């Protein structure tokens, strides 16, 4: 019985079902070997020799494969059809080679979809491992190791608080930091646009915009002030207007090509707010279930049989008019090894989303997106008519334009239209029937509501700009409000979303589809970047790392250099370059750059970063003063400093006499978080100070009699710069007595503790949702909160965060939220989620591994049970001591069996 090896147990189960009892299908659970994270794993001195290590979790999976090979030495490696899949097969062969007898058959098969036909066809066409793809993997892995393992320690030593650097990760971070710098350096520019509401002789209304004034074409900034805008409004309002021309041009829109990895990630982000990692996790599940083709691909072409199936599905569902006369063919310009794969598409075009039997919401939504995009890609183009109407005065002094479009045939838009990123909107206004030469009558009161809103009830904003005009904030209109001018300001470039970041990386040639998800996740896990309302914002430590790398390693965070290196890796995949030679050229220059930083002192690094970030750290002050002058002592100069615990902050050069500090990202550079006196209370000085755990309030000063004066930490969410004496006294007064509990008369208190705001009654605590409520909560509310906490304590188990399905041995697997964070629950086994895995992203396979690992450890805990019941056992066995001796081994055997069974579950799952 030949042994087939794939990556995941879910995939193994599906393929074994297709192949039947003639094959035994086992899972490797991903990579079985990796470079150990220690010096010397890649040795540049010995032609980049690489030392591999079998992961401890992989040993039992390898043992299962070796045991299976004892019965049949025919090994079929069926890992994923990409560079990474080829590498897994190579690692498996290298590791299993000593167990294979001479003459054993080893073959490699690949399939783009997990369907019965695709798998059966692949088994008929085995091949050998593609060494060029393996070489490309080795080169990429060695490069990432050499950069990360050598550059990260430089960061740790020279830049406290930095966590790591990576070959592509650091370049991706630079994109986000550079964009933030653009936004901060951006200076908004004012301009105005003038609009008129017009009507045809039949009374149909439409809007037109002023495009020429005084016989000249208007450019964007020609109306740069409200005065110029008011003059333009007057010019339009005082003239009769006629339609000078009407032109209608046919237009068409072709459908988007089917998905490849990067476009799928972008669209999932745009339409569903799904991050790259979550998108690929859901796509992996759909692929393993045989519902879609392989999800890591740069290709957009589709197999001929799939094209015909799509056309048949369109014809059956929408009719012949939606099927183009000939199939649509798509080709991209990618040169790397993964372009040979098909696009991401459903394996069965007739399986529409409404027929899909998938319970997981993310998978259902993603399949819906993939199905619609695929079907739409083979549909007829959308046809429309774009109309442009020119309106002008008889004297030629003013000219207006109205544009719109009419949809003649929706074509592929009946099914799908791609989401848009920032500034990708298009004019889709509908226009009535307008004829050349007809009068364009201005509609009175058209902008009255907009004017009222702009005024906002504030009479101070109303003034006469000129005779018969009304002016409000950012708005000018004629007295009839039929013509209006609106104020605009140019906008800075938008921050990246995951979708636009992936799109930009793809445009620059940085990274590859299989790496995008992990890169975007890593920079967030390292706390270099945070996501806010789906926008990626660099944290201070991310700025510091990027500035350091740009200063001392400019070549290795260069967009062009990184893209060129990716192209070389692609050439290795194609067999056109030798991987060791590529590594040699890279290491020669990179090692010199590393040597150049060996003598750097931290103070030098901080001074260099301080200068580079000066525009961000010390923005110009409104009063024109020196932005580096300390706002507390008015003598010292502000500069970048490092904290003992890591990280950096802005401090005064007069330390320790002046203890002014603020974080790097303090708004306008003026948020004081250092020592300052807030006022006095009952003869005590109330001060705001900064300690190792952040800012706090203190009453008085430390003395021999009072070494620890009353203190209160600033609550999370409060801005230390806004703390005044009143707020400080409120914090020092905590805990605050609310009143005696009506049941037992014991005092209820409200305060702020380690876990946030709370109310307390005796030894019972209940959390409050908001810090402010600590100072306002009354008796009724306090009793209600405490009662609700007590009720929850008696209630049944909380609802799971996520249902993962059934365990292979029966019973539901759930993700729960616990006191110490989320965990996986199966029967009586609770396994805590690793810090880098979120409840939304965890897969069934990961859950099975966590459960199995926990189950394997559980006997150690249960071993204490016999000792706990020693007394009871002694009473029962006093008369028959020999029987007691037999009982002990029996229990031990049972425990060993349990442990062994748990490991087997993991292997099978």
From TrEMBL:
Chain ranges of the Toprim domain: 1-114
UniProt-listed Enzyme Commission number(s): 5.6.2.1
Domain (Topo IA-type catalytic): residue spans on this chain: 130-594
Biased composition (Low complexity): 865-876
Biased composition (Basic residues): 877-903
Domain of life (superkingdom): Bacteria
Subunit structure of this chain's protein: Monomer.
Known function: Releases the supercoiling and torsional tension of DNA, which is introduced during the DNA replication and transcription, by transiently cleaving and rejoining one strand of the DNA duplex. Introduces a single-strand break via transesterification at a target site in duplex DNA. The scissile phosphodiester is attacked by the catalytic tyrosine of the enzyme, resulting in the formation of a DNA-(5'-phosphotyrosyl)-enzyme intermediate and the expulsion of a 3'-OH DNA strand. The free DNA strand then undergoes passage around the unbroken strand, thus removing DNA supercoils.
Protein name per the record: DNA topoisomerase 1
Organism per entry: Paracoccus amoyensis
């Amino acid at each position: 019985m030949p042994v087939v090896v794939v990556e995941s147990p879910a995939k193994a189960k599906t393929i074994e079902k297709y192949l039947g009892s003639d094959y035994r299908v086992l899972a490797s659970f991903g990579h079985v070997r990796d470079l150990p994270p220690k010096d010397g794993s890649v040795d540049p001195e010995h032609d980049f020799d690489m030392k591999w290590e079998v992961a401890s979790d992989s040993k039992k999976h390898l043992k299962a494969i070796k045991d299976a090979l004892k019965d049949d030495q025919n090994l079929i490696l069926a890992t994923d059809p990409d560079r990474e899949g080829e590498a897994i097969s190579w690692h498996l062969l290298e590791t299993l080679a000593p167990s294979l007898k001479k003459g054993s058959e080893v073959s490699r098969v690949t399939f783009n979809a997990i369907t019965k036909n695709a798998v059966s066809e692949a088994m008929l066409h085995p091949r050998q491992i593609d060494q060029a793809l393996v070489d490309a993997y080795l080169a990429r892995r060695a490069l990432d190791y050499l950069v990360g393992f050598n550059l990260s320690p430089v960061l740790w030593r020279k830049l406290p608080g930095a966590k790591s650097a990576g070959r592509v990760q650091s370049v991706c971070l630079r994109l986000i930091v550079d964009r933030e710098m653009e936004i901060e350096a951006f200076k908004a520019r004012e301009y105005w646009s003038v609009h008129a509401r017009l009507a045809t002789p039949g009374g149909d209304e439409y809007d037109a915009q002023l495009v020429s004034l005084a016989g000249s074409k208007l450019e964007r900034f020609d109306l740069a002030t409200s005065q110029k805008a008011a003059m333009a409004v007057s010019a339009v309002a005082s003239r009769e207007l006629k339609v000078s021309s009407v032109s209608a041009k046919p237009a068409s829109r072709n459908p988007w090509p089917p998905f490849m990895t990067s476009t799928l990630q972008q669209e999932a982000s745009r339409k569903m707010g799904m991050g790259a990692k979550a998108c690929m996790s859901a796509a992996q599940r759909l692929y393993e279930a045989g519902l879609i083709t392989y999800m890591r691909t740069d290709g957009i072409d589709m197999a001929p049989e799939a094209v015909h199936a799509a056309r048949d599905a369109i014809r059956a569902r929408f009719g012949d008019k939606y099927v183009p006369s000939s199939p649509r063919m798509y080709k991209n310009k990618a040169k790397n090894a993964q372009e040979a794969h098909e696009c991401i598409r459903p394996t069965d075009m007739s399986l529409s989303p409404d027929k899909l039997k998938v319970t997981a919401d993310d998978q259902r939504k993603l399949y819906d997106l993939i199905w619609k995009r695929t079907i739409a890609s083979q549909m007829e183009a959308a046809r429309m008519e774009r109309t442009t109407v020119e309106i002008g005065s008889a004297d030629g002094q003013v000219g207006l334009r109205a544009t719109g479009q009419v949809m003649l045939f929706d074509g592929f838009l009946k099914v799908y239209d791609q989401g848009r990123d920032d500034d990708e909107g298009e004019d889709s206004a509908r226009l009535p029937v307008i004829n050349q030469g007809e009068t364009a009558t201005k509609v009175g009161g058209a902008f009255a509501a907009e004017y009222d809103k702009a005024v906002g009830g504030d009479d101070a904003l109303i003034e006469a700009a000129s005779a018969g005009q009304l002016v409000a904030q950012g708005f000018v209109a004629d007295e009839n409000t039929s013509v209006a001018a609106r104020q605009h300001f140019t906008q800075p470039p938008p921050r990246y979303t995951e979708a636009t970041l992936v799109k930009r990386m793809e445009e620059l040639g940085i990274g590859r589809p299989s790496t995008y998800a992990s890169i975007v996740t890593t920079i967030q896990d390292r706390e270099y970047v945070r996501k806010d309302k789906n926008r990626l914002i660099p944290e201070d430590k991310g700025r510091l790392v990027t500035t350091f790398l740009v200063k001392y390693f400019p070549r290795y965070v260069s967009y062009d250099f990184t893209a060129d290196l990716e192209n070389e890796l692609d050439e290795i995949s194609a067999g056109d370059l030798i991987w060791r030679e590529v590594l040699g050229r890279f290491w020669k220059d990179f090692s010199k750059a590393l040597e150049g930083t060996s003598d750097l002192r931290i103070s030098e690094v901080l001074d260099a970063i301080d200068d580079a970030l000066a525009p961000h750290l010390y923005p110009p002050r409104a009063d024109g003063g020196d932005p580096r002058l300390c706002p507390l002592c008015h003598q010292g100069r502000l500069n970048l400093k490092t904290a003992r615990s890591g990280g950096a902050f802005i401090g005064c050069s007069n330390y320790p006499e002046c203890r002014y500090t603020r974080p790097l990202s303090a708004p306008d550079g003026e948020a004081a978080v250092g020592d300052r006196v807030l006022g006095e209370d009952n003869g005590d000085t109330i001060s705001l100070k900064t300690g190792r755990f952040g800012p706090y309030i203190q009453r008085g000063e430390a003395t021999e009699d009072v070494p620890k004066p009353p203190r209160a930490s600033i609550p999370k969410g409060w801005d230390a710069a806004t703390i005044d004496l009143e707020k400080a006294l409120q914090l020092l007064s905590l805990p605050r007595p609310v009143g005696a509990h009506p049941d037992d008369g014991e005092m209820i208190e409200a305060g702020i503790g380690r876990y946030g705001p709370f109310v307390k009654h005796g030894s019972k605590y209940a959390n409050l949702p908001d810090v402010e409520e600590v100072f306002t909560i009354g008796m009724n509310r306090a009793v209600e909160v405490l009662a609700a906490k007590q009720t929850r304590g008696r209630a049944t188990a909380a609802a799971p965060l996520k249902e993962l399905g059934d365990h292979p041995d029966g019973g539901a697997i759930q993700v729960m939220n616990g006191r110490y964070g989320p965990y996986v629950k199966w029967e009586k086994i609770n396994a805590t989620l690793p810090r880098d895995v979120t409840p939304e992203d965890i897969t069934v396979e990961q859950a099975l591994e966590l459960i199995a690992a926990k189950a394997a450890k559980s006997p150690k805990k249960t071993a204490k049970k016999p000792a706990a019941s020693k007394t009871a056992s002694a009473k029962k066995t006093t008369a028959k001591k020999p029987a007691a001796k037999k009982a002990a081994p029996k229990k031990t055997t049972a425990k060993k069996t349990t442990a062994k069974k748990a490991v087997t579950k993991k292997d099978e799952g």
